[in-house]
Task: inverse folding
């Protein structure tokens, strides 16, 4: 199957939105587009699983390539493995849920849905690219529209947050680009090339890797809230409108982790070994520090944003551990966190729409008046604190087991620190649940609230279902991503 | 026989009941939810009794030894390291089968009781859904084949307990209690998790039987590597076992991780009977028993288990003598009895007669489940009638509630250890094991037995005797659904003591005979009689003696009444130290230092551009001047400096 | 024959007079006139060098004619700008047209 459909479809739906201006027309087109995207990714998953050769051998499936600018050896080449497919599914689910959540976006609805579709095109393009230049192009495509989404439809100090987010991500992109240029000019084949498999086959010398790895790693790391470059996360997430927050935390933060796996560790394995202790220390700090910082927040969106810093810390932590289990855990954590945090932002949006506040101290007893939303809130919370049966547990346990395989003192200490975060997570999640949905009903007006409408229910159910599928049958996703993680692992083992 | 199908049904039925009641309980099954839940429980209780009969009497034994049967095992999640994988399966061996019976029977009784007790609740169906979830998780816990499976269900029982404690969620105290229970046990589970990691990575497997195989043989490779390497003076094996035990101690409310249990009494009383008396809180004991073949090889870990158990038993008994909330007294007594089970494991040897402690512990777990849930359900009936938890609001209830009175008295006698009730037999075995294993613990246990009799009868006299208060019940003693479980449990309390338990449950699967040593029984029974006598003197009629005695005890009484300030200590640590010295600085650092740097970079850029923007004056003539100066400069460079 | 240095002196003087005018005057018409002066000083240079260095060729003369043409076009545009500026700002002082600064 031709992977470019994944880019064409969102672009076409974005363009199809433009002639219309009524909310009803616009949102139907967006919903149809998002549904088609989800169907297409399901088809992709199905076809991929049908073809065991491409699924299990670790090489990429459905590869194709078009010259984009031949003199500079830039090709638009695409291909997927299990990891990409997992991320594509995540994107499709989050985008559909995001469209449903924004069902009543009155303000400039055409532009809003247009940008949302454009973002998803960027994300799909990013996940299917096998050429690092076009990958970079799509990375930028998934950044810039966020400025408008936050700046126009945001709340609070939105201009500040939008500027900060875009500037920090652009700065990160600049670092990424330096890393990519290093690969382009210095690979061992002597040819200028952006192609991933060529780069991986002709790695840089160890000295060059040591020089360029930090650029690529930190650049991508900023997207994944690498400590101490994470401060765009809380401000950006909290100012963004609900659907943008969902996209931002659910997908954008995964772009970095995916990039690190694909570009940094696979193409520069020796440097990955060399820098592994630094990665572990930084991510362990992010995990613990993020969770302690969350404990002190009072705004629901800040709580979720800081907890995202802590949770995506596990992604980098797993990657830094350089064992098969930990890397698989990191990938599952990316998917799991994407779904969970999208669900959390969606439910925060629903709560905010009704109570007009996001301060935990000012709410209470919602379980009594809006049970559906409150139940979803609780599910999101329990997923976040890693309850078995939900996706977070699987991911965290794989990361822990994978980390403990490393015998060094640093690894052990860092792993214990990371496991300690599950207690802190429980503290802040239960505090939020206890204050917001439990306790006495805060205002008389709360009894007038309407529970979730059909669109909110559908969005929540889609996300919860995906979380449960990973949580209850983790062997499925493990089976899906294993060839991909094994390919990465083989690279790492062969180049200690 | 087909254990796989039956035991899988055992798990799936309550799960199905949870899903159905959880989703449609508020709409379709609003009225029927109680009946559905109870019917499911009735079915699985029958199933588990059937399985138990089959296992113990028909085909569990091979050459006089009970063999573990793995009825079902599937790989759930494979890790890419050695043989590590999380398997979900069903393991039937004497202790798990015994637990199946305990859980399903007590849960059935609680379901029936709740039909009447929770009748007027708005969230009636949710309540039964949660009960089903709990039953499912607890059953999944006891039949685990894999140490990670037990950890998963361990967390699930934790969350069901959280949901049920916080069932009356509009009450702030219930919310706080549920939160506390979850967080404290979660903290303990952190230890459990790290223990699992150590055990799993060192032995290369997470499967219970393989772990036991590899570690129970002192010549094995895994055992040698784990005992030779160490950290801070303790071997890796000791660390692993102590950390695993930490998880067990948290769930079983052992000192000093017990603080959640008394608060957990905020939940509905039948829930306390099920979760916080009979089943979930003994999960820690069960965990140690499950790994007993490994535990008994490590002396340090065993003595930790023994001393933590003994301390908790005594400590809780002392606090229980001073409390006035009926459910809190029962909560502390639960903690104390679990302490008995724990130290009994800790002093036990392995195999045959030497493993008496193990058998005694399991026996006590078994009998305690019935009489303690009976006590809680009785307390529930009393609370239902009086509408208060406080013993000072009660008195003279024996005339108002005859059935409750009789069954409660029976349970009090059983827990105190009066022959020939079940508690007598099991406690006797524990004391005997302690006498043989560790004299110091034996004396602590003996003293605690006296205290137990005292505080239980203090409770009994204060509720059912003393002066009658004014009651305003809108109903009688309660419907049949509330009386029936009391009667059934009383019968079980009488009968279960006569089961030749050691024949069925022993540390290595080989049954042995136990004998009643009359001479040995004198001391404990005397202690019990003294305890009851003191309670009778002090509390049978309302008088000043208890107050005078309390005043005479002074600081000790006050300390015990305030639960030895452990709660305050925890509050101090969490609020004053963790919040103030870790949480706040982390948030502050993030806002001012990390983010401050980002903002400083931005504002510095801004400042620089502000400084140089003066050059952009908008005056054409100035621009021309710059241009001319530049041209001159270039001319100068090209003419004189460029060669 | 007049030595070339005399002519160069004249053109330099004209150039700097023009530049002085360009830098100091505020009136835009005066600025335009100053620019014309500078252009003409260049023209003189071209003619002079053509005459003294390559007397057989006419390249310098051509350049001069180009410059005169362009100067005429430029003056037309500049005066159009000045008129428009006067209409909008009611002034032809160059400092009054400072909207683009900062």
Result:
């Amino acid at each position: 199957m031709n992977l470019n459909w994944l880019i064409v479809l969102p672009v076409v739906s974005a363009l199809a939105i433009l002639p219309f201006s009524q909310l009803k027309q616009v949102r139907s087109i967006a919903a149809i587009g998002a549904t088609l995207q989800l169907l297409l990714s399901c088809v992709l998953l199905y076809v991929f699983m049908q073809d065991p050769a491409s699924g299990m051998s670790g090489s990429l499936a459905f590869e194709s390539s078009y010259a984009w600018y031949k003199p500079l050896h830039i090709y638009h080449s695409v291909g997927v493995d299990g990891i990409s497919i997992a991320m594509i599914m995540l994107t499709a689910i989050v985008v559909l849920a995001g469209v449903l959540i924004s069902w009543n976006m009155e303000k400039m609805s055409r532009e809003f849905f247009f940008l949302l579709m454009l973002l998803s095109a960027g994300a799909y393009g990013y996940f299917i690219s096998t050429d690092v230049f076009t990958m970079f192009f799509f990375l930028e495509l998934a950044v810039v529209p966020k400025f408008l989404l936050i700046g126009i439809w945001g709340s609070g100090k939105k201009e500040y947050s939008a500027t900060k987010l875009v500037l920090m991500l652009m700065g990160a992109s600049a670092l990424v680009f330096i890393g990519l240029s290093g690969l382009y000019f210095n690979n061992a084949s002597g040819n200028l090339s952006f192609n991933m498999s060529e780069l991986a086959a002709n790695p840089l010398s160890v000295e060059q890797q040591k020089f360029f790895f930090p650029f690529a790693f930190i650049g991508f790391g900023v997207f994944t809230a690498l400590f101490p470059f994470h401060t765009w996360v809380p401000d950006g997430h909290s100012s963004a409108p609900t659907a943008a927050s969902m996209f931002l935390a659910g997908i954008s933060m995964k772009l970095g982790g995916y990039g690190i796996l694909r570009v940094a560790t696979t193409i520069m394995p020796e440097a990955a070994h060399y820098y592994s202790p630094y990665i572990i220390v930084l991510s362990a700090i992010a995990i613990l520090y993020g969770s302690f910082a969350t404990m002190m927040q009072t705004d629901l969106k800040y709580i979720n944003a800081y907890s995202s810093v802590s949770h995506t810390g596990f992604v980098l932590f797993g990657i830094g551990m350089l064992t098969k289990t930990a890397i698989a855990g990191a990938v599952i954590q990316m998917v799991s966190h994407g779904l969970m945090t999208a669900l959390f932002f969606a439910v925060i949006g629903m709560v905010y729409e009704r109570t007009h506040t996001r301060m935990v101290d000012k709410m209470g007893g919602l379980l009594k008046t809006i049970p559906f939303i409150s139940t979803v809130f609780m599910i999101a919370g329990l997923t976040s604190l890693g309850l078995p049966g939900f996706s977070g547990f699987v991911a965290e346990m794989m990361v822990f087991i994978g980390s403990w395989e490393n015998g060094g003192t640093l690894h052990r200490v860092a792993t214990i620190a990371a496991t300690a975060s599950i207690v802190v997570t429980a503290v802040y999640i239960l505090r939020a649940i206890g204050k917001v949905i439990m306790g006495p009903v805060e205002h008389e007006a709360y009894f007038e609230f309407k529970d979730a409408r059909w669109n909110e229910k559908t969005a929540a159910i889609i996300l919860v279902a995906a979380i449960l599928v990973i949580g209850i049958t983790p062997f499925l996703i493990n089976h899906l991503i294993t060839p991909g993680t094994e390919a990465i692992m083989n690279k790492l083992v062969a180049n200690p | 026989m087909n254990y796989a199908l039956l035991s899988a049904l055992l798990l799936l039925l309550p799960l199905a009941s949870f899903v159905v009641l959880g989703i449609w309980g508020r709409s379709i099954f609003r009225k029927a939810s109680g009946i559905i839940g109870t019917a499911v429980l009735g079915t699985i209780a029958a199933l588990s009794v059937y399985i138990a009969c089959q296992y113990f009497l028909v085909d569990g034994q091979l050459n006089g030894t009970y063999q573990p049967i793995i009825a079902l095992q599937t790989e759930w999640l494979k890790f890419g390291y050695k043989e590590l994988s999380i398997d979900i399966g069903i393991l039937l061996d004497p202790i798990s089968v015994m637990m199946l019976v305990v859980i399903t029977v007590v849960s059935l009784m609680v379901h029936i009781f709740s039909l009447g007790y929770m009748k007027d609740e708005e969230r009636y169906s949710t309540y039964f859904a949660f009960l089903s979830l709990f039953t499912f998780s607890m059953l999944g816990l006891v039949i685990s084949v894999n140490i990670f499976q037990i950890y998963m269900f361990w967390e699930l029982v934790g969350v069901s307990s959280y949901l049920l404690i916080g069932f009356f969620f509009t009450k702030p105290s219930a919310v706080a209690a549920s939160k506390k229970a979850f967080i404290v046990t979660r903290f303990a589970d952190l230890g459990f998790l790290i223990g699992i990691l150590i055990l799993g990575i060192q032995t290369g497997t997470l499967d219970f039987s393989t772990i036991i195989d590899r570690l129970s043989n002192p010549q094995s490779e895994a055992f040698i590597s784990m005992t030779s390497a160490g950290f801070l003076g303790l071997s890796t094996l000791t660390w692993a076992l102590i950390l695993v035990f930490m998880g067990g101690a948290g769930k079983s409310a052992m000192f000093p991780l017990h603080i959640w249990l008394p608060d957990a009494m905020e939940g509905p009383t039948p829930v306390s009977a099920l979760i916080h008396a009979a089943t979930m809180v003994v999960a820690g004991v069960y965990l140690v028993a499950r790994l007993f073949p490994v535990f008994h090889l490590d002396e340090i870990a065993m003595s930790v288990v023994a001393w933590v158990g003994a301390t908790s038993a005594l400590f809780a008994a002392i606090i229980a003598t001073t409390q006035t909330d009926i459910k809190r007294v029962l909560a502390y007594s639960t903690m104390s009895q679990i302490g008995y089970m724990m130290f009994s494991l800790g002093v036990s040897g392995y195999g045959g007669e030497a493993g008496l402690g193990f058998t005694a512990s399991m026996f006590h777990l078994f009998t305690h489940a019935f009489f303690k849930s009976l006590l809680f359900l009785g307390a529930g009936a009393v609370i239902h009638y009086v509408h208060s938890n406080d013993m000072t609001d009660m008195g003279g209830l024996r005339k108002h509630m005859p059935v409750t009175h009789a069954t409660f008295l029976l349970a009090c006698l059983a827990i105190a250890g009066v022959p020939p009730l079940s508690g007598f037999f099991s406690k006797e075995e524990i004391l005997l094991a302690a006498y043989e294993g560790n004299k110091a613990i034996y004396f602590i246990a003996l003293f605690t037995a006296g205290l137990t009799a005292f505080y239980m009868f203090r409770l009994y006299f204060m509720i059912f005797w003393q002066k009658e208060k004014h009651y305003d019940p809108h109903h009688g003693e309660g419907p049949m659904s509330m009386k029936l479980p009391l009667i059934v449990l009383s019968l079980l309390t009488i009968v279960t003591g006569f089961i030749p338990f050691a024949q069925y449950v022993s540390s290595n699967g080989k049954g042995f005979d136990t004998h009643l040593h009359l001479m040995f029984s004198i001391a404990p029974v005397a202690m019990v009689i003294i305890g009851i006598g003191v309670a009778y003197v002090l509390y049978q009629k309302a008088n000043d003696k208890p107050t005078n005695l309390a005043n005479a005890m002074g600081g000790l009484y006050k300390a015990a009444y305030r639960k030895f300030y452990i709660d305050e200590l925890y509050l101090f640590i969490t609020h004053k130290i963790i919040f103030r010295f870790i949480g706040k600085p982390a948030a502050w650092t993030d806002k001012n230092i990390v983010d401050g740097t980002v903002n400083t970079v931005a504002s510095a850029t801004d400042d620089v551009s502000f400084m140089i923007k003066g050059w952009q004056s908008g005056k054409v003539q100035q621009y021309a001047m710059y241009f001319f100066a530049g041209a001159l400069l270039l001319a100068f460079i090209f003419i004189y400096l460029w060669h | 024959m007049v030595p070339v240095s005399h002519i160069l002196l004249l053109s330099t003087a004209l150039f700097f007079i023009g530049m002085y005018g360009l830098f100091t005057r505020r009136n835009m018409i005066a600025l335009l006139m100053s620019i014309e002066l500078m252009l003409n000083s260049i023209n003189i240079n071209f003619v002079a060098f053509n005459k003294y260095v390559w007397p057989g060729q006419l390249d310098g003369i051509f350049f001069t004619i180009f410059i005169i043409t362009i100067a005429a076009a430029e003056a037309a545009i500049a005066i159009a700008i000045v008129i428009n500026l006067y209409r909008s700002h009611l002034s032809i002082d160059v400092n009054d047209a400072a909207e683009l600064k900062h």
In short: The mean pLDDT of chain B is 86. Residues 131 and 535 of chain B are 36 Å apart (CA to CA). Chain B touches chain A through 52 residues (CB under 8 Å).
